[in-house]
């Protein structure tokens, strides 16, 4: 006994109506490229620069109120398109950098050790 089924016989005339309704409900101004850009924006900033932005935004006066509004922060750091990036930057600071930065640090370390080993091997040959 096999469990192979020929779905074309049973559902051959079935049309998926949900696919058409999704297109009708979609926001025409939505740009899928923005989603890709959001993922890559963190790669544009160093950890020190992210710290600088967060410290500027979180600065408090003597009364405990924020010294800088989001608007003034965005004006000073024009490369930050949305307030949500401040929260992301806090996360990266807590994690001591982005994953890409960590991988680059390990890559640099391994390459340096490789060059040292190669130089030592060449000296003793």
From TrEMBL:
Residues 1-30 have a biased composition (Acidic residues). Residues 1-33 are annotated as: Disordered. This is Uncharacterized protein. It comes from Didymodactylos carnosus.
């Amino acid at each position: 006994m096999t469990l192979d089924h020929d779905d074309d016989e049973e559902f051959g005339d079935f049309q998926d109506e949900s696919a058409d309704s999704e297109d009708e409900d979609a926001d025409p101004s939505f740009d899928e490229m923005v989603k890709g850009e959001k993922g890559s924006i963190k790669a544009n900033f160093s950890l020190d620069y992210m710290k600088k932005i967060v410290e500027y935004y979180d600065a408090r006066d003597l009364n405990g109120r924020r010294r800088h509004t989001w608007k003034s922060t965005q004006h000073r750091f024009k490369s930050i398109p949305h307030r949500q990036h401040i929260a992301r930057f806090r996360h990266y600071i807590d994690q001591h950098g982005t994953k890409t930065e960590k991988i680059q640090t390990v890559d640099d370390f391994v390459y340096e050790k490789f060059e040292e080993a190669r130089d030592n091997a060449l000296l003793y040959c």
